[in-house]
Structures are given as C-alpha cells and as structure tokens.
Design brief:
Length: about 220
C-alpha cells in the first residue's frame, strides 16, 4: 500500500518536473509536492487510495470483528479529507490556496470584485448577464434604490449577498499558475499515461474557482476558446 503510493508520488513528481522545465520554472518542479512525503499527508493518502477497509456496517454486531474507527472506510475518508486540506494550504499551486474565507458579512465590494463574483454567481444560477450589467451601473452610480431598475437592484443585492457568503478569489502569480498547469498535466500522465488536461479542465471548470485573470491565462495556455 505505502510502496505503491510512493511509486505514484515519484512518477507524478517526475512528470511535473518535466512540464515545469518546459514552462521555465525547474526549481518549482524540484520542490513540487514535497509535503506529500510528510506523515500527515503520506499515510492518509496511501490508506485512502491503495488500502482496503471495512465498513462499520460489516461488523454485524460481533465484537470479534471490531476494529478502531480510524481503520474503517469512514475513518480513512475523514483522515484523507484533513490531509487533503493540509496539502492545499501548504502548496500554492493549488487554486484552493487562493480562496480567502471572509469573516465579515457586510463588506463593500469594488466594481472589479462585483464583476468577477457576479459572473460566477450568475453562471451557476443560470441568470442573465444583461441584468447583471445594469446592477453594476446601479452600484457604480450610487443610484437610490427607488430610482433604479428593479431587476438591477435585485441582482446587485443577490451578488452582494453571495460574495459575502463565499470566499474571495485571489489572483495567482504567474510562476504559481505555471506550476498548477504542470501539476494538472503531470497528474494526467501519472494516472492515465497521457496528457488529457484540456478535456479534464472542460469537464471540471465549473468546479474550479479561479480569479478571472488566472482563468484567462489557463484557458489561453490550454487553447480553450
């Protein structure tokens, strides 16, 4: 189990290093994912991906079948979730690292933040961008509530509330974007033996939360129209 996972990590890091060299960041390739070798990540990852564990329902009430909770499916999954969170926050090449959880519910947002957050919010809720544009004008011109278009005010309030309840998205520095892209390519080659990054991205893009500048760069690099 642990040996299999170690071989995967070595293979993954090799592919990522190759891509990092192509992108002009070899040092980041050498340092990539070293935190995966820490016990707090390595052990939960290996158990989750390569272990076989008993479900609590399989004990059938027989104490002879009892095993500690951490060695059950639920226990292994819980340990992996924590290890995955640690990995995200230790490694800047993960987009999750650049999400800032807001601790204020009444923050005023800039027009740029409204545009970026509004585009994400509306796309996820199948709303019309035209009305969103009106809401931006409403906020920019400081028009009083009773003087603005009803739809515009509604959208502005919805977006404002949504932004206050969701993490703030920070732009990723160029060298970190490059490592993220190299990581995606390396993961594809390490798991599937081929570079299927573009198709993977298109399939998962709605779940990948990126700053608009970062996303534009990623899609340009992947050739996404």
């Amino acid at each position: 189990m642990y040996w299999k996972y170690l071989k995967y990590v070595i293979r993954h890091r090799w592919y990522v290093f190759i891509e990092c060299c192509k992108l002009g960041i070899p040092i980041r390739g050498l340092l990539h994912d070293l935190s995966k070798l820490l016990p707090s990540e390595f052990i939960p990852y290996a158990r989750y991906f390569y272990g076989t564990w008993m479900k609590e329902s399989e004990w059938h009430g027989d104490r002879r079948n009892y095993i500690p909770w951490k060695y059950t499916v639920m226990g292994v999954e819980a340990a992996f979730d924590l290890a995955w969170l640690k990995h995200q926050k230790r490694n800047k090449h993960h987009w999750q690292y650049w999400l800032l959880v807001m601790d204020s519910s009444n923050k005023e947002f800039t027009l740029q933040e409204m545009y970026q957050g509004g585009e994400i919010y509306l796309s996820r809720n199948n709303r019309h961008l035209a009305a969103f544009d009106e809401s931006i004008l409403f906020k920019e011109d400081r028009v009083k509530e009773n003087q603005c278009n009803d739809n515009a005010y509604m959208y502005a309030k919805e977006i404002q509330d949504w932004l206050n309840k969701n993490p703030k998205i920070l732009d990723m520095p160029l060298k970190v974007r490059k490592e993220m892209l190299a990581d995606w390519i390396g993961a594809g080659r390490g798991i599937n033996g081929k570079d299927d990054t573009k198709s993977w991205y298109l399939k998962n893009k709605d779940n990948i939360i990126l700053h608009s500048v970062t996303r534009a760069w990623v899609e340009e690099m992947l050739g996404v129209n």
